[in-house]
Description:
Elements: E1 4-8, H1 12-24, E2 28-32, H2 35-42, E3 49-52, H3 61-70, E4 79-83, H4 88-95, E5 100-104, H5 109-122
Parallel strand pairs: 1-2, 1-3, 3-4, 4-5
Helix pairs in contact: 2-3
Amino acid sequence: MSPSILIVEDDQPILEMMDLMIRRLGYDPVLATNGIDALELIKTETPALILLDIMMMPINGWEFLERLRALPGRKDIPVLFFTATPEVEERMAQLHDPNLGVLHKPVTFSELKAGIEAFLRAGPRATSGER
């Protein structure tokens, strides 16, 4: 069984594109259109990685991350922000969370592949910086 990657994205066309790319990379995508649904999924499944949009409703990616890190046994799940938000690195640096990374929208297939593989292969890391 391939490692699962949870994709949390409220834009349906982007979610569908990410689903296809993740499948093509050989991972098992799990899809959520908002942070609340994603948190419910995480209570029963532990993905190898979470691709997380920041600008969503009813909770944004930062709120999702805070709630995720508070869940027992889920604190160390790696999260790759998948975003067009420019100040993400600055805010991530303030968190001092070695299990965070970032991919900037729009992302190419090769950028996605490199980001996911580097993050999963390297394990926790102290810097962001996939672009």
